[in-house]
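Q: I have 387 residues here and want to know how they pack in 3D. Can you give me a structure?
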Amino acid sequence: MTMAATPRAATTRAGLGRLLAAIESGREAKPEWIALRGECRLERLREGELTALLPRLHRSVLRGFKAPEPKGLGRKRRLALWRAVSSRGFHDFSDEGWTKCWDSPFVESYDYVGPYLTGGLSALDAFQVYSSVLGTHEYGVADFVDTELCQRVRTVVEPMAGCADFAYHGHFRKPDFRYVMFDLDSKARDFVAARRWLEAADWHYWIANVLDERVWKRIRTLTSGRSLSYIGKQSHHYLEAPQLLRLLEIGTRHVDYFMLEVQEPALVSDLAEVEDLTRPEMKDAGFRALLVDDPGVRPNPLTHRLSFSLEVRDRAGSRPLFHYKDWTSWQPVTLWALAQILGLRVFYFEPGAAEFRPLERAAEPGAEIADVNFLVFTRHQELRKSK
């Protein structure tokens, strides 16, 4: 989450029109955000006004626009408004606002609800539903490579990539980088290949096993500058302890900085059997998204082993989208222990400072350890002392 600039604000239609005209003419630079207030609130715009406004907004912002939650709308009108915006280049999957990829010229549709309205649960795109409820939208490539630790990175690697949101979104902000993704799921590769990449983008998506060292050696041959590898959404929980130890060993041998998105310390026994992830537009459309324990299987409080599914439900039935069988919830302290076995240095990302800090300093006065979700492992020893 790059430190956000103060958004430009518009409270009247006339004022908004003047601002957009100044940006379109080049008299004013594109702001990261535009805030729509007063008579520019979404629910106060007529359908035709909104349809005409959204393409101009998309061309005129780097990141997106902010608008208060619509008031006084019934379910059908509220869903229609959400679909009107999400089908014209913006999503609201994070708390930042209505967002697009950084300065993207592509007006992408994030309306994953439309197919459900005509075809039910079976028509939902599993990857789009996953991205809406479990995707990492608050942080991206720029947040990590603009740090003191990773400032020399020029190659981004996304193993166990799935729909590869990290690399795809990142290539708009860092278009001169090389992006290498790989996964065992050919459907995920097809999903990523169908996305709209910048014409000059240097990207590769392979079908490959994360534990196959030949893949990592191949990545090394493609690397320019230093490299950052990122495994998101705790996908490393798929791995048994020997596999995870091997992954840390071979990964850090062939990339400079090996990053895992991790859970904050917690007991898996505290997890509910069913966790409701339902978003407002899902509720308005008539279905829910849930994380559900496998029948008769509760997380083991001593081994942290768990099995669950992401599924969608409505009055007509249910559909599992992704099954996570025999995960081990690897806690940061265990990852630290594995790093010690391998002689690796470990850093945590401190959101407030937007920098990586050595894990050993997490107990120092002033250290911010709330919302610590990213750890970096490296073999480099010549790093300057972190600020």
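Q: Anything worth noting?
A: Residues 8-111 form one domain. The first strand starts at residue 8 and ends at 10.
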